[in-house]
Amino acid sequence: MGFVKAVKSKAYFKRFQVKFRRRREGRTDYVARKRLVIQDKNKYNSPKYRLVVRFTNKDIICQIAFARIEGDVIVCAAYGHELRKYGIQVGLTNYAAAYCTGLLIGRRILKRFNLDGIYAGSVEVTGEEYHVDSIDGQPGTFRCYLDVGLARTTTGARVFGAMKGAADAGVDIPHSNKRFPGYDSESKEFNAETHRKHIFGQHVADYMRLLAQQDQEAYKRQFAKYIELKISPDSIETMYKKAHAAIRENPDHEEMPVMETTGKRKRWNRPKMSPEQRRDRVKHQKVAFRTKHQEGAGFE
Q1: CA angle (89 as vertex; 85, 91 as ends), nearest 5
Q2: What local confidence, expressed as pLDDT, does residue 10 receive?
Q3: Nearest Cα to 180, choosing from 99, 90, 236?
Q4: Which residue in 227, 234, 243, 246 has the most C-beta neighbors within 10 A?
Q5: pLDDT-derived band of residue 265, with 50, 70 and 90 as boundaries?
């Protein structure tokens, strides 16, 4: 075997610096975070707000946050499971639900800063691109920047549904229509009607009609909750319209009532015993063992 040059010498390992923990875990894109967090020097200590949007298997998380050295500070939050209060019982993670969650956090943060009466946003949902402008003689608009984390920013992604909801609520979020459903990258044209259909869940309604015609069993299996709650494809748009109106009327967060448990709690292990109880248990085990041994040996 010939001479093999050491590619990584001892000096390399002595100077090796590990990456940040969340980078090692693959949970934070620090290149994107740096650009979202760093504030202009002439703005001093003013917070730079971010609209943080995350999706789980069963929920949507929207938060308004700003960065400090000790960690991010959450100013306001809204979740997909809160939509049940506004009449949406199913499809809590689709594009239409993302829009509703964005609308909810938008109206909630404006109410927190007493801006909800000044900036109403886009009350009529058309799917068109909308940007709120400051009003002369009034406090400026609330500006924040979309934080998508590690999500793929493809055209029609649900994160942009949440952003659109917050923008229509009256929050100033810099964006374009190039990632909304209905944008064609080849012709460079945007179809607002397609976007409106996604906001009102019509893409789900169309699939429900298609599946009901093609495979009735698959329809009953996949949309069992819709059938149970008597939600038809024709009633989906009305459900979302009522939810939008209810969110604008009362965006406040309500604490869920604590459920009172009745009866004894289930436990799968033995309760902890005191030293006296343990000694007494050993004593009883010894007596039982002797009795069983004597009976087996034929002693009386």
Answers
A1: 125
A2: 87
A3: 99
A4: 243
A5: confident
